[in-house]
Amino acid sequence: MNCKEFNKNIDSFLKEKIDEDLLEDFIEHYKMCKSCNEELEIYFLAHKIFDNSEDLGENVNEKYNLKESLVNFIKEKEDIVYRNYKRDFIFKMMFLIGDGMSIGLAAYFIYILVTL
Ligand SMILES: [Zn+2]
After folding, report:
1. Ligand 1 centroid to 3 CA: how many Å?
2. SS in 3 state form for 27-58?
3. In angstroms, rounded to a whole number, what is the distance separating the alpha carbons of residues 41 and 49?
4. Mean pLDDT by 10 residues, the chain (116 residues)
5. Global pTM?
6. pLDDT (tens digit, 9 = 90+) per residue, 17-36?
7. How far is ligand 1, taken at its centre, from the CA of residue 37, in Å?
């Protein structure tokens, strides 16, 4: 993901509407690119203030811990990425095992046919 794409996805990321396929690239870019890192912080701050203005009063502490809440927010998203990783891995393993079994089964039938 480049800076332009990152910028395009900031809004959907903060609204938690980002495509999960993009999430990993997004977080990766966030970690590598200093200017986008700062950009996201600014947007996060604005998002907190404007989008949650009705409960801002209760979240005064959160306002002072913005950096921390952003870190937590990113962490949450990372968890989703890792969860997807794990899920994909399990699927792949199941597929491989399933595949291996069908190959084994085919070999078994061939063996039976040949030996008959
Ligand atoms: Zn960037």
Report:
1. 4
2. HHHHHHCHHHHHHHHHHHHHHHHHHCHHHCHH
3. 12
4. 95 90 92 93 82 56 71 88 82 78 82 81
5. 0.62
6. 998 889 999 999 999 999 99
7. 7
Query: What span, in angstroms and rounded, lies between the C-alpha atoms of 21 and 18?
Result: 8
Q: How far is the CA of 85 from the centre of ligand 1 (A)?
A: 24
Residue 51 CA to ligand 1 centre (angstroms): 24
CA of 19 to the centre of ligand 1 (A): 18
Q: Which residues surround ligand 1, an ion (CB under 5 A)?
A: 3, 33, 36
Whole-number Å distance, alpha carbon 2 to ligand 1 midpoint, is 6
Tokens 């891995």 identify what position?
89
Task: Identify the burial level of 26 via C-beta atoms within 10 angstroms of its C-beta, where 0-12 means exposed, 13-18 middle and 19 or more buried.
Answer: buried
